[in-house]
Amino acid sequence: MKPSFTKSWTVILTLLALAFSAIGVTPAYADSTIIVNSTADNTTPDSSCTLREAIANADNNAATHAECIAGSGNDTILFHSSLGTATITLGSQLPTIADGAGLTIDGNNRITLSGNNSVRVFNVTGGGALTLQNISVTDGGVTNGSGLRNSSGGTVTITHSVFSNNRFGSGVENWGTLTILRSAFLNNTATTDGGGVWNSGTLTIANSTFSNNSANYGGGVMNNSGTATILNSTFSGNTASTGGGVATYKGGSTAPKTTIRNTILANNAIDSDCWNHEAGGGILIGGNNIIETTSTCASIATLTSDPNLGSLTGSPAYFPLTAGSPAIDAGDDTICAATPVSNKSQNGVTRPQDGNGDNTAVCDIGSYEAPDTFPPNVISITRLGTNPTNSDGVDFTVTFSEPVTGVDPTDFSLTTTGGIGGAFVAGLVVLGPTGYDVAVNSGTGDGAIRLDLKASGTGIQDLAGNPISGGFTGGESYTIDKTAPTVTMTSLASDPTHSSPILVTVQFSETVTGFSVGDILPGNGAVGNFTVVDGDTYTFDLTPSAPGLVTADIAADVATDLAGNGNTVATQFSRTYTMYNLFLPLILR
Q1: Which of 75, 112, 117, 198 is the most buried (most CB within 10 A)?
Q2: Is residue 199 part of a domain?
Q3: What's the rounded Cα separation, in Å, for the pair 150 and 128?
């Protein structure tokens, strides 16, 4: 009897698995999404998938508990919508996370995990990788990491989450790699050091708030011989005998290295907002910080004034910056733009904003970014071309106070004077974030044209969505001159005349340029003594060559007015020249 196809493949797969195991190769798994549909804390065989069962399946990459789907690769645990806003109260620590393929637990801002004041919530061992997002971890009740303990070699990322009311042993104790983003650590305590976070590994904090945490050293954070980077975060209301906000200490053979930038440390107790273990060789790097009470952190304090924080609000909670806060628009944009701040803020406003209304967007110091509530306006409307002009098309440069959107030709109107008719806005071109070139057809006739921004209904707004604050009618005007200058030649000499030379006056109807002696064409004479009286008046001497008709002509377009119009042809100047007869016979008495 032939062996079945299924049995044959089963044998082959079993042999492959044994072979991979023998040579230390970890099989690759497709990622799984496991849905928790119960707030119970058990592993009872039933129809419900609990968080405890889901973590076990994910970490084992197996269906250890049949109530949940099998874990596989970089797993994600979500919570069924039917749970609503819920708290899962633990009777013991959740299963240890050791799978390096990664596990993400997303609470969708609805789920709280409670240690019931008696157990640790999470434990990550060396090689394990855990991401917590949109979740609250509270009421852990053990020493050495009440909310979470991350062992050496473990990797933990906490995003948009809350660690609160964890007691005895810090909100998080970190020996591995820990990243905290856009999160809040509130009311956590430690009997020794690091009420919010105790670190002896690699710690990164960005866009986060630490408040009302307490310990002996480092009420908010204690960096004990680790490496800590704190960016755009706010520490306020924390308490410790030393370093209420942040403290560093050389607790082993390695000096702590701490970088703090764009961060607020203020209103912390008891002795200072920041303390660095200088005697232990603590390395302190940073700047652009507000540290109200500096102690041994003076070297990284740019300001020591009150940051004017508002009351805790939002979730995860943050401190708003009140009007006039020195932290507004005082940050380092380079730090804000780079990872891990990434131009984000804890309150969800994209950095940078123009928070102080000076028309320049600069990111704020701290976890909060004050939104731009100031409407844009037009700074100027100026001529882009020469003035006056005879052109059929003219251009205006419109400059706004800040980058705007929604600008189109229908947002503008024209104010005309004189005989202008048929002028209209023809189009626009973007010159840059705040500048626009608006093209105008000048129509017919002479007069003046001014470009105005309509007072309402334009739809123009800044990048923060603030609508423009009205119109603008104070711009420059073009003088439109499409009429050619006329020219006449006159003389006080009689006709006929015995005068030589004949003084001739050239009169243009307006100021012109480019007219010279060579533009006068004499007939039976010579031109000399050419004189410029002013911009529209000239004189010259016309010396007859012989008796008879003496003429002068000025052709068209030999001179132009200020708008560029060439003159019309002049009516010919003429005089009949006669000479005195010096040889008339004398009549004697």
Answers
A1: 198
A2: no
A3: 9
Largest CA distance in the chain: 174
Query: Which residues form the domain of 453?
Result: 378-480
**Cα→Cα distances 22→27, 101, 406, Å:** 12, 20, 65
Could you identify the residue written with the tokens 């549909």? 37
Domains: count for the chain: 3
- Shared-domain flag, residues 278 and 359: yes
Give a yes or no: residue 32 inside a domain. no
Token couple for 20: 């991979």
Give the position of tokens 């008339």. Answer: 584
For 14-79, give the DSSP string: HHHHHHHHHHTPPPP----EEEE--------SSS---HHHHHHHHHHTS-SSTTSPPP-SSEEEEE
Q: What would the pLDDT profile of 405-439 be if each residue is shown by its tens digit?
A: 999 999 999 999 999 999 999 999 999 999 999 99
Q: Give the tokens for residue 258.
A: 């701490």
pLDDT at site 580 = 73
In a shared domain, residues 296 and 342 = yes
- Nearest to 411, CA basis, from 448, 378, 459: 459
Query: Whole-angstrom Cα distance, residue 94 to residue 115?
Result: 9
Whether 333 and 254 share a structural domain? yes
Tokens 């995860």 belong to residue: 316
312 & 451 share domain: no
